[in-house]
Amino acid sequence: PAPASVQRASSSARQGARRSEYLCAAMEPERTGWPWDGFNIEEVELPDQSDDYGVPSDDEEDFNAEEIQKDEGFSCVVVVDNLPVIGIEKYEKLLGVLKKIFSQIGEVHEDGLYMPVDEQTKKTKGFAFIEFANPDQAKIARQQAEGYKLDKSHTFKCNLLKEVEDMSATPEEYKEPELKDFVRKDNLYSWMLDARGRDQFAVRYQDMTEIHWNDPKTGTSEDVYSRSFWTESYVQWSPQGTMLATVHRQGAQVWGGEEFSRIQRFGHSKVQLIDFSPCEKYLVSYSSQESPNPREGPMAVFNVSDLKSGQTLRSFKGKLSDFMVAGGEHKAPGVEGALQWPLFKWCQGNDDKYFARLARNKSGKTMISVYETPEMGLLEKKSLQMEHIVDFHWSPTQALMCVYQAASPDGNQPARVSLVEIPSRSEIKSKNLFSVKDVTVHWHPDGTYLALQVSRFTKSGKTSYNGFEFFRVGERNTPMEVLELEKKQEKIVSFAWEPKGHRFAIVHGDGARPDVSFYTMQDGQKGQIKHLGTLHGRPVTSLHWSPQGKFLIIAGLKGLNGQLEFFNVNDMDTMAINEHFMCTNVDWDPTGRYVATSVTSVHQMENGYIVWSFLGQQLYKVNRDRFFQFLWRPRMPLDLGKDKENEIQKNLKKYSKRFEAEDETLKSQADVEKMEERKNMETEWADFLESKKKVFEEIREEHEALVRLSGYVESEQSAQTEEIEVEEVVSVKEEKMPR
Fold it and tell me: How does DSSP assign 371-416, residue by residue?
């Protein structure tokens, strides 16, 4: 330690320095904010907005994490016309009614509702201005409030104030618009024009998403497009295959065309799930997040957006528990389960006209809310009130829904299944079901048949048995039939309709190797269900029909290690038995010619996919670590007409010869390419070997000098070759010669 005198001197010096700093600070004026002295704003060089600073991005520049929409003046204001003309005494009452109506649609600014008053008559002028938080909410309010009946004499007429301003600013003289240069857009249907009729598929593994042509004739796949970090969770094809959707924290995007350029984006923060409407007009997105109030549960947001414009047409917001209505085929009545997805079920084959969801009214009773597009409002402004609804299912081809209602808790009302037509809400068929444990609904893909898999309690109530109820929806008066298996108490493992036909298959049995039974709905002229045959003791967990029917894959997935039986139902014959170890998924291509089996990342090993022919022949195999998705690209429905189909069937042999010749050409071309590839590899190896020999010749003298310095003496040893003959008895055969 320093002497005490040195420490005292050091302390006094520090105190003196602090006093001088204090005096200097006291003498100078106090400075706050920006130091403007000597500053010239003209000399400031702002960064170039187009500069990405070495980090290229085609997503973030126009797709921010939180897309903040600023107040855009007149675009946020809705003009509501055809209001009652009232005096000052009723002004506040009408103002409260309007605020209540429009607050349910969007966020109305504080003091954002104004009704002009005539100064002379002291009465309102019959219209009002309503200001919303952003332009999107104003557009939604205009669409939903248009035509709203306040009473018998007053129906709302709504416009945006921006539109009114634009109309008033229209010049008196016509000015011809300038012609814009033609900008070519991508053809969303280009993949359907492939000369060889191939199908595309998407795969996702690790951080990569790839699009490929399925090219089985050459025994491989052809690359179409690939991109890393294309999505943050998963990808999804649209129902008709024209677009591919990717999901991000900021929202969803759809891509298409030859180069898979971005078509549209949908802002929805922290989106988790998306769903397309069948005709690709709308997109439903869902997100949930914790409530700011810790006492409340998570909040959910469902947006219904227009696919062409990207605008949100309607939002459904509330507590997540409000959307988790009891339902589902395996949910007990009165017990709330997980969120069903899709929550909104679209009516099939009706130009995306209706979509519906299961909900509860204020008293807690179940109901089905049916919404009509494009207005996005409730059909006839009221829901379909039905008690104890477990679930409902739209027909695949018409505006008809099957509604399953559970039995009442007091037992006075049995379970019930009914067919309800929309929009008339008329009930065309119904049936009461007694002692029901559970009901599973299976619509035929053509909508011609409806199968109900019914599990019933025995009289003791301790055990249950299974049976089937069939509705012939395509026939007059919708006749019904009942099917019971020989062993009623056997477990029903799987049920599957033949997509194009009248047959169905059932997997039933309690052991590890259940039976597979086949039936037809058309028994000649009788029109009754007929048993076709049963396969006993099969390692099966699921059935996978070809989209064209006739062929079926009997798959043993999960614990059965990927057993695959390719079966011809017409001949009741097994075509091939194969195995894809640890297989998790089986997916037919849209044409029914090929099928893909895959092992996803639920297993740590053997990840990848195999493509097979419908006969069960393995065409090619691709291994990928951390494999997530295999998705065939759907095909648009094409109706050639019966005459054209009959003509093709008639000339099928002629077409077959042409296609076989093309296949042989492709195979020979593939063989030539392989030979050229091998030849190139041999040439590269010879060139590499020759280059190394030249390098060695250049350093040979140095190498020999180093060898001599090491003391090692290389002796030339001559090799001798000796040939040795060895006799070996391959086989001995005895034959008796005839005498």
Answer: EETTTTEEGGGS-EE-TTEEEEEE-SSSSEEEEEEPPPTTSSS-EE
The pTM of the full predicted model, rounded to 2 decimals, is 0.71
The residue written with tokens 């300038």 in the block is 178
- pLDDT of residue 93 exceeding 60, the answer is yes
Question: How confident is the model over 493-509, as pLDDT tens digits?
Answer: 999 999 999 999 999 99
Q: Are 442 and 495 in contact (CB under 8 A)?
A: yes
Phi, psi of 436 (to 5 degrees): -85, 135
User: Measured between alpha carbons, how far is 281 from 354 in angstroms, rounded to an integer?
Assistant: 12
Please state the rounded mean pLDDT for residues 660-669.
72
- 265's tokens: 């984006």
User: What are the beta bridge partners of residue 305?
Assistant: 283, 312
Distance in angstroms (rounded) separating the CA atoms of residues 29 and 630: 71
Distances (CA, A) of 653 to 198, 549, 649: 20, 21, 8
Residues 6+ apart with CB under 8 A from 444: 396, 450, 451, 497
**pLDDT at position 72:** 53
93 contact partners, CB below 8 Å, separation of at least 6: none
DSSP reduced 3-state for 146 = coil
CA distance 611 to 591: 14
- pLDDT above 70 (res 470): yes
Model pLDDT, residue 636: 86
- 38-69 b/e (C-beta count within 10 Å ≥ 16 → b): eeeeeeeeeeeeeeeeeeeeeeeeebeeeeee
In the chain, the N- to C-terminal Cα span, in Å, equals: 128
Cα distance between residue 488 and residue 181, in whole Å: 71
